[in-house]
Amino acid sequence: MIPSMRLSSSLLSAATQVELVDALVEQGWYVGQGVIDLDLCHSLHQELHYMAAHNALDEAGIGRGQQHHLRKDVRGDAIHWLDRESEAQRRYLMAMEALQQVLNQALFLGLFEYEAHFAHYPPGAFYQRHLDSFRGRANRVISTVGYLNPDWPADGGGEMVLYNPDAPNQETARVIPEAGTFACFMSESIPHEVLPTRHARASIAGWFRRNASLGGILDPAR
Ligand SMILES: O=C(O)CCC(=O)C(=O)O
Ligand SMILES: [Fe+2]
């Protein structure tokens, strides 16, 4: 079997892709449970756990390029950018490439790149409400989040809350960070936050991008 066929069909089924595109068009966001293969979640989770245990993660900041700075009062996760170093990472990224093609074919978005990082939220960490697309730089078009935590307890906290863009205090979805769950939403319009977590919480946050180089200023990839 051609690997990419197995990957795209095992990670995001054709039915899931149709549902996802419809949801993005109709409401600007999609959440599905049991979407990501659990063996793959397990491998990715182990990889992140190993890096967290060996202090191999970077403290996350806000802003890009030279505007990047740490703000523990805004976000408390530690990250590692996916670099294709493991088979599990390559599988996840190939599935996202397949999704990028589907999104471009269905929505004519001109997405040309995908960037993603592992995120480890230690107990007590959160990420305040924000938009993923930075002001003046409409480069991130669609955000994705894959969750890696098996058996997330009911009182575990750490849900991602999506808000209504037209009524920013109105919650539209609350996403439990359970392994297999996959969320995606329009980066420029959907405010969201990560509620304080009570347990170590693992996810992969990623973004489909459009090239936003303007006036000869190179738009940094991170
Ligand atoms: O991990 C999540 O649920 C979302 C994280 C997030 O909003 C981000 O990294 O921009
Ligand atoms: Fe975000």
Automatic annotation (TrEMBL):
Keyword annotations from UniProtKB, A to Z: Dioxygenase, Iron, Metal-binding, Oxidoreductase, Vitamin C
Keyword Repressor among UniProt keywords: no
Occurrences of domain Fe2OG dioxygenase (ranges): 107-210
Classification via InterPro entries: HIF_prolyl_hydroxylases, Oxoglu/Fe-dep_dioxygenase_dom, Pro_4_hyd_alph, Pro_4_hyd_alph_FE2OG_OXY
Keyword Metal-binding appears in the UniProt entry: yes
Molecular-function annotations in GO: ferrous iron binding; L-ascorbic acid binding; peptidyl-proline dioxygenase activity
Source superkingdom: Bacteria
PROSITE patterns xrefs: FE2OG_OXY
GO biological process, one term: cellular response to hypoxia
Pfam (any one): 2OG-FeII_Oxy_3
Listed cofactors: L-ascorbate
The name this protein goes by in its record: SM-20-related protein
Species of the source: Vreelandella subterranea
Lineage, top ranks: Bacteria, Pseudomonadati, Pseudomonadota, Gammaproteobacteria, Oceanospirillales
